[in-house]
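Exercise 3.2. Students should predict the tertiary structure of the chain below and write it as structure tokens, then compare their answer with the key that follows.

Predict this chain's 3D structure.
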Amino acid sequence: MTRQPWRVAVVGGGIAGLAAAVRLRDRAPAGTEITVYEQSGALGGKLRTGELAGQPVEFGAESFLMRDPTGAESAAVALARRLGLAEKIVHPTVGQAALVIDGGLRPVPGGTLVGVPGDLDRVAAVARPDADADTDGGRPLVGPDADVSVGALVRSRFGNEVVERLVDPMLGGVYAGRADDLSLVTTMPALARAARVEHTLVGAVRAAQAAAPRAPGAPVFGTLTGGLSTLVEAAVTASGATVRRDAAVRELTATGAGWRLTVGPNRDPDDGSRSRRGGRSSMVDVDAVVLAVPARPAARLLAGPAPAVAAGVGALDYASVALVTMALPQPRLPELSGFLVPSTEGLLIKAATFFTTKWGHLRRPDGLAVVRASVGRYGEEAHLQRPDADLAATVHRELSAVLGTPLPAPVDGHVQRWGGALPQYAPGHADRLAAARTALRAAHPTVVLAGAGYDGVGIPVCVRSGETAAEEIITALGGSAR
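Answer key:
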């Protein structure tokens, strides 16, 4: 067994890394030294609560799922409970969203699974399914070990309109990617499991929905009063970890007893030993490492000790997005949580959220409304090169056109750019990741990957990924959870 107290480095201060730190504090032996290294000055990753017009506003992730795919409490809810934040969880007061179809708003039809219909009649007002194509061919839709793109499966069964008007905007809102490029197994695992049994896509959707029943009226999403950054702050406190901000881990080297981290801020191009701020890199020895960073930084760190793993992990691509938030004085907004935009509509915005309509706790007596639009689809990063003012003006103009009424000039605004934020899981991602983790576990069991680049997007998935990584570290160091 590794000597105690253990020293564990968590590289990455997003919610996956912080969840790993909390789990290590809860279950690793007493006295375990946990250090979180974050290359930026801010913790929380894509969880970032800012302020607009005098009130908290999310500049990153907005909410979390309340239930996991089995119907049990999600990992995000469980973490909030562990951190004493359960009473701060609130739910949307308006849940109906819309789709932009032919320039106007139409309600998102019910009975779909991320846009894939389980009842073709219910989506007819938005898209015309090719009902004759979804026939029983006498075998499961997907082979036992196969993965396909979501778009390929849905097009073959329901035709192009269902993909372009329903599935693509739904997936685009989450991943900023295209249904034709995204893995069924990774982005829609419940449907993938059902498709390995069912012979029709309608049957697979209904089976997936039945496998995770939801009580009528039970909330799907939640957030925290005061903003999701309260989750970040509480996790840091509960972890008892030493936090090093502006500390980039540049190199990971195996030692006889564990790992040596080379840590330091950005280097001058003409002096590899000094940072732009005049600091020097330092060497830190630890027993184990949680790599809770995106795939490419993880691959760079693994290139020395595990080059084959690094090559497999580093192949994952990412999409960039910008979130444009505006505070509007008494606009005329529909009673909707927001809307999604199919790429076929030719708009820059791909989604919009009416924060002060969707979330009752954010409504203001003066009628000031907070609206956020998401800009940027995978492969269209050139649009994000526009200046902030240009993006904001375009978003304001397009929102006015969709709503059919000129919106008032904003009294406050913010543009948050997230470069390389959203993983693009190509078919086969789960198998490639499993192979990489198997190889890493065999060669270096005290280095574990965690986060969205590996296990999926969304706060609950990232929390669970971090917690699982912490458990693996405890096992690898020869301990047992307390």
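Discussion points: The longest strand covers residues 317-329. Residues 267-278 have pLDDT under 50 and may be disordered.
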